[in-house]
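Hi all, long-time lurker, first post. I run a small reading group and we've been trying to get comfortable going from sequence to structure in the token notation. Rather than ask abstract questions, I figured I'd post a concrete chain and ask someone more experienced to write out its structure so we can walk through it together at our next meeting. Sequence below, copied exactly:
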Amino acid sequence: MEATIQLQKLNKFESKLMKHGKVLTLKPKGDLVDSFFLEKGHNIEHLKIENKRQNEIYEEIVKEKVVKIMNNLKQKERFIGIWALDTLFHLDRLDIYYVLNKFHQILVEKGLIYLSLRSGEDDFLENGKWHTCFTKEGVVDLIGFTDFSIVEIEDKDDHIDLILKK
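-- Answer (accepted) --
Happy to help. Here is the structure in token form:
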């Protein structure tokens, strides 16, 4: 069931992408996501984010890796799309804003991002992971502080799915 839902999200996003170009994926390598974009004829650059180090908090690992890769990309416009689904769940609001602005710098004009943010009124800590939560209005406010426009927003049970356009 989960793979079917993810495939639907991938198809929706890919149908809105430009036909040729590179897509940045932020999910485990070898995942359905990479295979999907490769089959559709897109080149893939992959950012692997996972916690392998002991005694460190997960969100610090994610923040460190995202910031490092964004700095290494040297603000070149090079991607037609970024697939970030639930990658930003564990960052705080300021870090999410920072990462969204870095994404903006590496997208081509009219490039797209697909991402999800945790839905809810209150942030919380669970199993050592921080969860930053947004209402739909809060997401609209956050995006309003960036240079993105909202192409699509869908409020699900525990998350809000977004497609953003540069």
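A couple of things your group might point at:
Residues 2-165 form a domain with the Rossmann fold fold (CATH 3.40.50.150).
The chain has one domain: 2-165.
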